[in-house]
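Lay summary. Proteins are chains of building blocks that fold into shapes, and those shapes determine what they do. In this project we predict the shape from the chain. Here is one chain we studied, written as its sequence of building blocks.
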Amino acid sequence: MSADLTGTWAERQVVDFVKYRYVKAAPDMDAHHLTAKTDTMTRRAYAVIAAGFLTVSIAFSIRYGYGMLLPEMLPDLGISKAQAGAIFAAYFAVYTIATPVLGALTDRFNYRFILTLFTTVLACGAMLMAFAHTLWLGCLFFAVAGLGHAACWAPVAALVQKWVPDHKRGTALSVVTMGLGVGLPLWSIILPAMVKASDWRAGWIGLGVVCLGVAVLNFILVRNPEKDQPTEDRLLPPKPKFWESYRDIVKDRVFRIIGTSYFLVGMTVIIPYGFVPVYAREALGLPYTEATRIVAVIALSGIVGQLTLGPLSDTIGRIRVIMTCNFIMGSACLGLALSTHSWMLYLFSGCFGLGYGAVWSAYGAAASDFFPKEHTGGIMGLWTCILGVGSVISPVICGWTIDVSGGYFWAFVLGLMTGVVSALMLAGVGMHRRRA
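And here is the predicted shape, written in a compact code that computers can read:
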């Protein structure tokens, strides 16, 4: 292997992994055995994918259920749009801080324990939201939910990739993220019915109870991935320490580029999910039930994106799919800014969902494409931390622009700018890796 292939930290890790795991540890293992081994999908792998699907479904339903319940919460709590954005920001602030720690810990400890524990914390945070009667309690309780959600994406994506063969990672992650596309349409029907029968607080209780059920299923279905044991453990390179791993990762140029793109996407996606239902209710005069259905349109079109663009990333490459998704989302935000009729709102929300549905699985699979699998949890955790910073900033800025301008135009223009820039900055990543 030529010396120029071992320049970056990520490339050195790949070389060491192959050298020690397959060449020295198992010299008599032929290529047919390795191929057969990596192509196998066990029943436990399907169970883990199912658990990931359910976890993602309820976690993102709680996150974006805030936007669906917000039109009813605003008059009851007596808060402004900027204050409503602050509650959302509190969620993402805790989510951002906790995600990289949990992502790295799951690479070293028990996935089953962490996923069960933190889905329970998420359920508690959702149910506590029913008892929020001030701005500060809303921030506190939704921050608890953010802590729980911190274990419901990066660790799930890392776990699924460790259970499935390499050539099925994009497809498996698309199935997992499809939980979002299935969960949100269901809750867009359930929550208005619960609000009509009782009030918005009943909606939070319902979300929390279902999340507790998912925590039980995580305990039943999830197992740590089986690890290949080399014939001589002493031949394996020493595992880097916790903070040493992060220090070396952040020095990698490609990691920083993709991370910055992830940050901008974090600013983009919050805008439609957080403010479109309120925009439809206040600016276009749609009834509450119809306004919440717009979230279902985003989620359902997201399934189409997951089924088409997600698996396509296994053949044409992750970066191309990510760039396409980010362009679609940014352009859709411009369409939302210019919408004057309900049909336009539905149309551009559907376009946004196409990109949103596929982009997460592509980012998740890119972590294993460019870096060693044993570091996937930590890398996804760091990227999600960076995304969370954008998600903290975005709702506060958007809420402030809405309060100051009296309209939603500039909030959606922000989504246009961040979506397009996040796509353009990835143009050199694929070329960089092909040359390497």
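What the prediction tells us: The chain has one domain: 41-225+243-435.
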